[in-house]
Design goal:
mainly alpha
Length: 129
């Protein structure tokens, strides 16, 4: 497999979204834990992230072939933006997480940076079909 096909694959983006490390005083772990718990309670950040994931997977399975490249790119952009908004809402709405302490720690910062790089590659470099 080419590196381009791995970096721009929707599954890689979704996995990196779930593996963003969250650190804070009362709790920590991967974003997947907070995402699943938020879905149970119906929080805004979980619903937004779930919608972004579903849109990206819909675009991956629905728009195949070179004739739908513009539609697939637009769908990928919308899904990626919803995933970014989900992370933003999570950090904004949960007041327990100290953002300044989050930025200082290496592993959470690297996981968030890896997700941002993969989102940029996913949106700018159209996935191979």
């Amino acid at each position: 497999m080419k590196l381009r096909s791995v970096i721009t694959h929707p599954y890689t983006l979704v996995i990196s979204f779930f593996l963003v490390c969250i650190s804070g005083q009362p709790f920590g772990g991967f974003y997947f834990n907070h995402f699943v718990m938020g879905l149970y309670y119906g929080t805004v950040y979980s619903i937004t992230g779930g919608a972004g994931i579903l849109i990206i997977l819909f675009g991956h399975f629905k728009f195949k072939g070179p004739q739908n490249q513009l539609d697939a790119g637009f769908i990928n952009l919308i899904g990626a933006l919803l995933m970014i908004i989900s992370l933003f809402l999570f950090f904004y709405l949960t007041g327990n997480i100290n953002i300044s302490a989050y930025i200082v720690q290496l592993l959470p910062l690297l996981s968030l940076l890896a997700f941002c790089i993969l989102v940029t590659c996913f949106v700018l470099i159209l996935p191979e079909r």
